[in-house]
Design brief:
About 60% of the residues lie in helices and about 5% in strands. The protein is mainly alpha-helical. The structure holds zinc ion (ZN).
Length: about 110
């Protein structure tokens, strides 16, 4: 809070006063009061809206969701290869299946999963 000069009577008035208390002239130098809480709320609100927008944007791209799904499937497949309860034949089969999924992924998205 600071003091400013009234444009009408030149008396010092608060920069947050809407009108001059002495002459009633509108304070042209008025600074709109904004407390820390409101500022913090604006920052948090802004971030939250950005976050929501980004989330909606990413979620609205079906390719991304599908890609993540395919990636998860490959991940799951690979975790099965090292399953000690599988016999070597089954492990080879799972491994081939994973390789096939990776090939499909590469062909589909042009990147490594
Ligand atoms: Zn005044």
């Amino acid at each position: 809070m600071a003091l400013v000069k009234c444009t009408e009577c030149s008396k010092e008035i608060s920069d947050q006063a809407a009108v001059c208390p002495s002459c009633g002239a509108p304070n042209k130098n008025r600074v709109k009061p904004m407390n820390g809480f409101l500022k913090a709320l604006l920052v948090v609100g802004g971030l939250f809206i950005l976050f929501l927008m980004f989330g909606a944007y990413e979620g609205s791209k079906p390719e991304n969701r599908e890609k993540q799904h395919d990636r998860d499937a490959i991940e799951l497949c690979r975790s099965r290869i090292s399953n000690p309860s599988l016999d070597p034949e089954a492990q080879r089969f799972v491994s081939r299946t994973c390789d096939y999924m990776v090939d499909q992924f590469r062909a589909k998205y042009g990147v490594e999963p």
